[in-house]
Amino acid sequence: MVIAFGSFFLFSVSSLAVISFALSDNHGEFIYNGFNGASLHLAGIANIQPHGLLQLTNTSNRQIGRAFFQFPIEFNTSYSFSTSFVFAFVRKSQDYFGHGMAFVISPSTDFSHAVASEYLGLFNISNDGASANHVLAVEFDCVLSPEFKDIDNNHVGIDVNNLTSIESTSVSFYSNGERKNRRLELMSGEPIRAWIDYVEDEKLLNVTVAPVRCPKPNYPLLSKSIDLSKILLDTMYVGFSAATGAVASNHYVLGWSFNRSGEAESLKIAELPHLPKEKIAQIGIKELVLYKVIMLLIVLIFLGTICGAAYLFWRNKYGEVREEWEKEFGPQRFSYKTLYKATKGFKDKDLLGEGGFGKVYRGTLQSSNEEIAVKRVRHKHDSGEGMKQFVSEIVSMRRLRHRNLVRLLGYSRRKGELLLVYDYMPQGSLDKFLFTDEKPSLNWPQRFQILRGVASALLYLHEEWEQVVLHRDIKASNILLDSELNGKIADFGLARLHDRGSSSKTTLLVGTLGYMAPELTRTGKANMSTDVFAFGALLLEVACGRKPIEPQGLPEEVGRGLCCGGNGAGFEIRPTMLPPRSGN
Ligand SMILES: *[C@@H]1O[C@H](CO)[C@@H](O)[C@H](O)[C@H]1NC(C)=O
Ligand SMILES: *[C@@H]1O[C@H](CO)[C@@H](O)[C@H](O)[C@H]1NC(C)=O
Ligand SMILES: *[C@@H]1O[C@H](CO)[C@@H](O)[C@H](O)[C@H]1NC(C)=O
Ligand SMILES: *[C@@H]1O[C@H](CO)[C@@H](O)[C@H](O)[C@H]1NC(C)=O
Ligand SMILES: *[C@@H]1O[C@H](CO)[C@@H](O)[C@H](O)[C@H]1NC(C)=O
Ligand SMILES: *[C@@H]1O[C@H](CO)[C@@H](O)[C@H](O)[C@H]1NC(C)=O
Q1: Active-site residue set
Q2: Is 3.30.565.10 the CATH number for 324-423?
Q3: Ligand 3 centre and the CA of 437: distance in Å?
Q4: So what's the pLDDT on residue 316?
Q5: DSSP 177
């Protein structure tokens, strides 16, 4: 029961608050914080929206909207009055805007002959300026109309029977805090509060404006000495008139208070209705759909670009060449990504060496923690029979098993590049031990062990496997050493494979000067004997610690003899008899 009574009480209070007009027996004062239930006479397209917003015009062209307080005000005792209201002009997005709104005191609410546009719905061309009008208006005008001597397109003016203002000024307000005038845009779309005061004794009409959140400025925008008794009649209506023309805006009034007996009560800003969110409301359904589609397209294009860039980046970084025929080599095939990760991106600091075929990098397979060496062999032909044959030869060499051969683990392919994966040999190549100070010198038993290992591997390649594998480039830098200093032949098979029994048909000269048998440089035909000749040169190299060829001529002479057969000028073959380097 108590609860029921309580809620009834609350209901009554809130409905009173909404219909907040006062003292219907005294029409000299009223206050509307929002216009729900207000006693207004509406004309033209003016309407009160469900949440209490008074809309005078919308954005249709050449429209008029008027709203007057329903009851006449008696001015027979005094002409003093005070009024305050909050209004907002909201334009259609980005369009031109106009025309404006006026606060009006008029003997009648009948403006049926008035026209829109610059006349603001107040007069027409024949009655503008007629003293019989008895109209006082304060205009808030957004269009410069030269026929009325308007000063700009953002002004406030005091009009008496005539749209040519007797006093006007650009819109600004005195900021009490900053103690200076600040410009205000009528078309900002933000609510603006206005005060219009007239005190009969002073005969001063003051007009003041400010943004809705600001207090009333200490100084009015317009202060005009004027005798209203000469203009107004005893009984007058008060209200607003707004008009649109070839340009249009929404003209809204959010709240209004009026007082004849004292200063108009301040409006309660928090209770005022909200302005509609015009930008979205103004965009039609079609435009909204179009807008969304365009946004979606932009987002898709953006995402597509990112994905494309990511794909290109990935392909550039990890992309590889993989062909149908390689399926059978599946287990031997490493993905480029695996090798890239294993070598941490083929950094220079992991470069083990650089030979005739390409650079060799050190790496660690992430899956097994196994140390590997990756040789990157550059080539011109990406696909076709030649490549297929080469890859299958290389892969078949995986089956070569000998403790003195560097084990081939597999391969990978990229555009213009073949990657061969080998066991990593921690001690590096034999020439480092023989010819540089980086490594300690080898003693005789170590040298012998290395040579014996190389010899047995060479025998295996030549005679013990199902095919003859010619190495064609036996030399110290192609002999790698494991941790126990066992010599292992590297790079076998990069020169071609040969079937047992048939001699080479290759004419391309492969090999290194100083290790090449004399007949090889003449005929260009490699065979087992030419490999053995090279091994002989290696024997001497290991025994004496000197290179088979040491250039002694002038630089321009050096190189003339390269690969042209015989012992070219500028080179001297120094066989055998020099002692090994010191330390042994
Ligand atoms: C403006 O109001 C009039 C009358 O209510 C209506 O016919 C017209 O469609 C409205 N225009 C817009 C742009 O909302
Ligand atoms: C003013 O006019 C009203 C209505 O016409 C009337 O009741 C009132 O007595 C008048 N007051 C004066 C001071 O004339
Ligand atoms: C202007 O308005 C007056 C009434 O206020 C009317 O008598 C007159 O015909 C109108 N003139 C035009 C041109 O509409
Ligand atoms: C309107 O007011 C202006 C300025 O006061 C004046 O020059 C003009 O003659 C007036 N118009 C009429 C028709 O009286
Ligand atoms: C109007 O403004 C003038 C100048 O600031 C001021 O002296 C006067 O008191 C004001 N009158 C009213 C009614 O506010
Ligand atoms: C009108 O002024 C009187 C005297 O200052 C005040 O008591 C009253 O609340 C005011 N009413 C309105 C609606 O402004």
Answers
A1: 473
A2: no
A3: 116
A4: 76
A5: T
Mean pLDDT computed over 208-222: 95
Which residues does ligand 6 sit against, CB inside 6 Å? Answer: 22, 29-31, 257, 259, 261-265
Q: Is 375 annotated as a binding residue?
A: yes
**How far does residue 82's CA lie from ligand 5's centre (Å)?**
12
61-74 pLDDT tens trace: 999 999 999 999 99
Could you state, in order of their start, the residue ranges of all structural domains in the chain? 2-283, 324-423, 432-573
CA of 131 to the centre of ligand 3 (A): 14
CATH class of 2-283: mainly beta
Over pLDDT 70: what percentage of the chain? 83
In ligand 3, the atom with minimum distance to the C-alpha of 115 is: 14
Name, in order, each residue with C-beta under 8 angstroms of 118's C-beta and a sequence gap of 6 or more: 99, 143, 145, 147, 148, 163, 245
CB of residue 557 inside a 6 A radius of ligand 2: no
Confidence tier at 528 by pLDDT (50, 70, 90):
confident
Per the document, the length of the chain is 584
Ligand number with the minimum distance to the CA of 84: 6
Which pLDDT score, from 0 to 100, does residue 222 have?
96
- Are domains 2-283 and 324-423 of this chain identical in fold? no
CB under 8 Å to 195, separation ≥6 — which residues? 82, 83, 84, 206, 207, 208, 209, 216, 220, 264
Q: In 3D, which of 331, 326, 424 has the Cα closest to residue 375?
A: 424
DSSP letters spanning 535-568 = HHHHHHHHHH---SB---S-TTTTTTTTTSSSS-
233 Cβ inside 6 Å of ligand 2: no
Higher pLDDT, 178 or 471: 178
Distance from C-alpha of 454 to C-alpha of 102, rounded to nearest angstrom = 109
CATH architecture, domain defined by 432-573: Orthogonal Bundle (1.10)
Q: How far is CA 32 from the centre of its chain?
A: 50
Residue whose tokens read 């026209």:
115
Question: Which positions ≥6 away from 498 have C-beta within 8 Å?
Answer: 467, 468, 469, 470, 504
Task: Band the pLDDT of 564: cuts 50, 70, 90.
Answer: very low
Give the model's confidence band at 159: pLDDT under 50 very low, under 70 low, under 90 confident, else very high.
very high
Ligand 4 lined by 131 (C-beta under 6 Å): no
Residue 394 Cα to ligand 5 middle (Å): 103
What pLDDT is recorded for position 496?
A: 57
Residues with CB under 6 A from ligand 1: 45, 58-60
Residue 426 clears pLDDT 70, i.e. is over it:
yes
CB 427 within 8 A of CB 385: no
